[in-house]
Amino acid sequence: MVTELKADILHEVIQKRPVTTNKTNFGNILLIGGNEQFGGAILMAASAAVSSGAGLVTVATHNTNITPLHIRNPEAMALDWDNHGTVLEQVRKSSVVLIGPGLGNSEDAIELLRSTMRAMRENQTLILDASALGIIADKHVMIPTNVFTIATPHQGEWAQLSSVMIPYQDSMELNDLQRKTLNIDVLVLKKHHTVILSENRQMELLLGGPYQATGGMGDTLAGLIAGFVGQFAEPRRATEAAVYAHSAIAQELAEHNWVVRPSFIADFVPNYMARINTNLPEVD
Ligand SMILES: NC(=O)C1=CN([C@@H]2O[C@H](COP(=O)(O)OP(=O)(O)OC[C@H]3O[C@@H](n4cnc5c(N)ncnc54)[C@H](OP(=O)(O)O)[C@@H]3O)[C@@H](O)[C@H]2O)[C@@H](O)CC1
Ligand SMILES: Nc1ncnc2c1ncn2[C@@H]1O[C@H](COP(=O)(O)OP(=O)(O)O)[C@@H](O)[C@H]1O
Ligand SMILES: [Mg+2]
Fold it and tell me: Which residues does AMP bind (predicted)?
């Protein structure tokens, strides 16, 4: 049975920070993506991860994207993705790895995805988005079973990955069956009324709208999920909270904006999160 995802997920997941804490308690996040054509995708993901409060954010990308990354987000560290050895070392050190936004499907991109998956271990979370999902479908790459995996396809990507064509994607039974077959722990099937499927749990988002139908909206969500999973306890719930917050912010901004720029969402995240578990007016 599909349950509506409601604001209480935010109160469950977003916890006040202990006063004696430090950055090592809020996730060491690695974002991999951004070729020469799609640099913006990984930049938007990085903005969302940094704004969500992730402890440390590193971006492995094509070297043309490093200066723009630092101009937008000096908080993020950067690696040239041509240095595979250094990138894989960072993969091993990270608590959460997001791969895919703007990754493209070159031979190098395919090898980077394969080696990233091989380098990951049990206590880490892997988030697969955009081009990474296309490569997995195209090249029949197996998703590792020993890593907690979150996949965030839009309907076109899910059709390619699962062979569940769009008219049949209303069947949660079919989607969940394919989720399990593909070794995905949490499936975020993005659309108007996104659904989130995991073991014995099916949630549906009823927030958001067409003002979100703009390039980069999913890249921003992927970065937000990475940031939430890095700093909050339970990855399933953290994913659901990020999905909720992403569209709730979009809906709030849409009251005064015809279209909601994905970068605006990232900028608004700290303000939105401050209204959970504080004395400020609560969100609902
Ligand atoms: N600023 C940047 O750098 C940006 C970079 N980006 C990066 O670009 C890369 C390619 O990603 P992508 O999503 O744009 O294209 P792709 O993987 O070819 O799939 C699209 C095809 O699937 C179909 N389709 C069906 N349902 C759909 C749906 N609900 N939403 C969307 N599509 C749907 C549709 O087919 P149609 O229905 O038109 O026949 C369409 O042809 C990726 O790495 C991404 O991160 C973008 O994030 C944008 C901003
Ligand atoms: N009409 C809509 N109503 C609600 N949400 C939408 C709508 N159109 C797009 N979205 C949301 O915007 C995001 C689009 O993701 P995606 O297609 O991966 O974008 P991109 O790859 O360009 O960043 C998803 O979170 C999706 O749910
Ligand atoms: Mg996308």
Answer: 190-194, 218
